[in-house]
Amino acid sequence: MSWHVTEINKELISARAAAHQMASSIAKAMETPLKRIMMCRPTHFTVSYAINPWMDMRRGVNKPKALQQWDELKHVLTQAGAKVEVMEPQTGSENLPDMVFTANAAVIRGKKAYLANFHHAERKGERFHNKIFLESLGYKCVGSETIPFEGAGDALWAGKNLSTLLVGVGPRTDPNVLPDLRREFDEENVRIVGCNLIDARFYHIDTGFCPLNEEVAMWFPHAFDGVSQWHIKSTTNTIEIDDKEAKNFACNAVVVGKTVVMNRGSERIANTLHRIGFEVAQVDMSEFIKAGGSSKCCTLAL
Fold it and tell me: Most exposed residue of 5, 142, 160, 216, measured as fewest CB within 10 angstroms of its CB?
């Protein structure tokens, strides 16, 4: 009997030590400042077509409210320490309502931007405007014009030194893009890993997975098949969100240093993040969720 109690105590001590070590690693990772962010003013934002399960043209968008929410998101990001580069919609973008979702513009590494080649015809025109703006910021723009790929909406840097690119494949991004990404991001220790998305509601990887830093990420595991779950868990420590939080776009969050900016209404995961040392800023993104996007979708980390 005493042996059994002793073994349980040893396990508890070991678990506490592991938790303390993880918390220390997270705190150290958060010392590195982030980030320059690209946003696009929602001048033409509306729901004029339906290309994901969230879009319903009958609901409509309150455009003044959407602009107010976008302004608030930009303000919160700036207050957290981000430098926001705003792309103003130019002539020719009037029929590109989803251009506000700059996460899909490209995935960035250093001064190279691998541009999106959008799956749906409704968004293909965005590439031209994104390329001009990113080049104006000094980025070398590359990327296939034939293989569907949707930028940092479907490609997130995670793990040690943020050197693993987890790429969501299936709904929007073709797995055939993986070799081209490997060629363009040909750096020592960089890994490119495809992750199969299996739930139509979570059509981009950034709706079901959010790296908080190089040590830990939030995720909704049911958005991925079993093999992809294994790849993610072998890349980073994970904090699971539940179905209700996932449908509230909790994973579609922006991280600036130790501040996590997310849609309002996911108190459980917000409290979890507070306990491990993050600050959480909740903003109302309800108008953008009508189009299937939230905080992260409206930003591109540069």
Answer: 5
